[in-house]
Write a structure and sequence with these properties.
The protein has 3 domains: 115 residues, Alpha-Beta Plaits (2-Layer Sandwich); 106 residues, Chitinase A, domain 3 (Roll), CATH 3.10.50.30; 182 residues, Trigger factor, domain 2 (Orthogonal Bundle). It is built from 15 helices and 11 strands. The strands form 3 sheets. Strands 6, 7, 8, 9 and 10 form a 5-stranded antiparallel β-sheet that branches. A 4-stranded antiparallel β-sheet has the order 1-2-4-3. Strands 5-11 form a two-stranded parallel ribbon. The model has no long low-confidence stretch (mean pLDDT 91).
């Protein structure tokens, strides 16, 4: 019978030794050999009539090794499960001479060693003591007027012009990413967009005045637009909104068309176009509705910021020890060179360890919250989430399509997409984790302007990159 022993070799780092007696693997090997002899197709012999000695000489060594290693894996996995050993990743085989000693003609005792990294026990930081701010963004009349003007521009009419001559011009442009030396980046961003000239910074607007179709302007994203507009344009360009370096990217901007925007008039026809159903009939109604939508937007941004503070409070103030020596070895095995990929050096892995351990810490904390508070996502919640995504894509007209058969067909099809289900499950579970966390905190209400809030978030993202 197999004998399994373990001994510590570092912090949360243990060696597990699996010692096999020949009785542990020999019956399985002999059975495998017999089954193989029945199926072997060797010229000169009828199926099932190949001499056992020939089969053993030809295939015995590989079958012998397979059965020994299968037995080792079975014994190791059984031990970890029976003893409830909670480990990171999977056991790593240690170098052993016994692998080279495997001899089909002389079955013997063999010992195989593995190293494992143990998951730590820990106490989570008390969110009730966390210094959390709930930012209340001041929604000004200027913000409401700017949003209404943006809507007027969006739905307005445009007439063609020869040259750029004023802030109300719309320029159709092609963005092409440049490197630090001003050369086009091979495979870089190339996006067509339309931008109202007034959204560029004052200095950049001067560069466009007098330009016509085919002319070019070189910009740096963060200098060409205000922080908010740079983020808006960055989304159009497919840039990561959490990447603080995006504002430093350079682009060659080529004008493909120039137009003059005639804003939509504020009348009942426009109000109905924006808000079908007649709930907005006057300019005052539109301002009230627009302010309510702006409030909802910034309330979401403020809640996201609370979640960010919760994340950092838990990660920064929860002490967790890790089997770092084991994890480094494991990362090395996961980053070996492969076809088309160079892999990572030990120096690169060493540099990435702090970020990796922070991510691992959050995973452990999340798992603890899920397990301690029985957080789960039901199949019905997944289906409802999938439906809601579909309705949002269609403009939110859920009542119009809720009972239609094709909706359920779509949901059923998505429920068979393993990747989609995993991603949706993780997203819903994450939302529930933060919902639980929000019940534990005692946030301080903190007034702030939209500009200051945006600047604070931008600086925070830059700090953590």
């Amino acid at each position: 019978m197999a004998t399994i022993t373990k001994k510590p070799i570092g912090q949360l780092h243990e060696k597990i030794s699996v010692k096999l007696d020949k009785a542990d693997y020999l019956p399985a090997f002999e059975k495998s050999l017999k089954e193989y002899s029945k199926k072997a197709n060797i010229p000169g012999f009828r199926p099932g009539k190949v001499p056992a000695g020939m089969i053993k000489r030809m295939y015995g060594p590989s079958l012998f090794m397979d059965e020994v290693l299968k037995t080792v894996d079975k014994e190791l996995i059984g031990y970890l499960q029976n003893e409830n050993v909670d480990i990171f990743a999977q056991p790593l085989p240690m170098e052993t001479d016994d692998l080279a000693k495997l001899d089909v003609n002389n079955p013997s005792e063999y010992t195989f060693d593995f190293e494992v990294g143990l998951k730590p026990r820990f106490d989570m930081a008390d969110l009730g003591e966390a210094d959390i701010k709930a930012y209340n963004i001041d929604i000004t009349d200027e913000m409401v007027n700017q949003e209404i003007e943006r809507l007027q521009n969006r739905f307005g009419n445009m007439t063609d012009k020869e040259t750029v001559d004023g802030d109300e011009n719309i320029v159709n442009i092609t963005f092409e990413e440049l490197d630090a030396d001003g050369n086009l980046v091979e495979g870089g961003k190339k996006v067509e967009d339309s931008v109202l000239l007034k959204y560029f910074s004052e200095e950049t607007r001067k560069d466009f005045i007098g330009k016509t179709t085919g002319d070019e302007v070189v910009i740096t994203l963060g200098n060409a637009f205000s922080t908010g507009d740079a983020e808006y344009i960055g989304k159009d360009l497919g840039l990561d909104e959490n990447d603080a370096t995006s504002k430093d990217k350079k682009f060659k901007v080529t004008i493909t068309k120039v137009g003059q925007l005639d804003k939509k008039e504020l009348n009942e026809e426009f109000f109905e176009q924006l808000h079908p159903g007649g709930e907005v009939k006057t300019e005052d109604d539109l301002k009230a509705k627009t302010k309510d939508e702006i409030l909802k937007y910034w309330a979401t941004q403020s809640r996201n910021q609370i979640h960010d503070q919760i994340f950092h409070s838990l990660v920064d103030h929860t002490k967790i020890d890790f089997p770092e020596a084991f994890l480094k070895k494991w990362m090395v095995t996961q980053n070996q060179p492969q076809e088309g990929q160079p892999g990572k050096t030990e120096e690169q892995i060493e540099k990435e360890m702090p970020s990796f351990l922070n991510q691992l810490k959050w995973t452990l904390i999340s798992d603890k919250i899920v397990n301690d508070h029985a957080i789960s996502v039901s199949p019905d919640e997944l289906r409802d989430f999938t439906k809601q995504q579909l309705f949002n894509y269609m403009g939110g007209n859920a009542p119009l399509v809720e009972e239609q058969d094709w909706v359920n067909d779509y949901v059923n099809r998505m429920m068979k997409d393993r990747k989609y289900v995993e991603e949706s499950y993780n997203r819903l579970q994450s939302e529930k984790i933060f919902e639980w966390a929000e019940q534990q905190i005692k946030p301080t209400s903190t007034p702030i302007s939209a500009d200051d809030f945006t600047k604070m978030v931008s600086e925070h993202q830059h700090h953590h990159h």
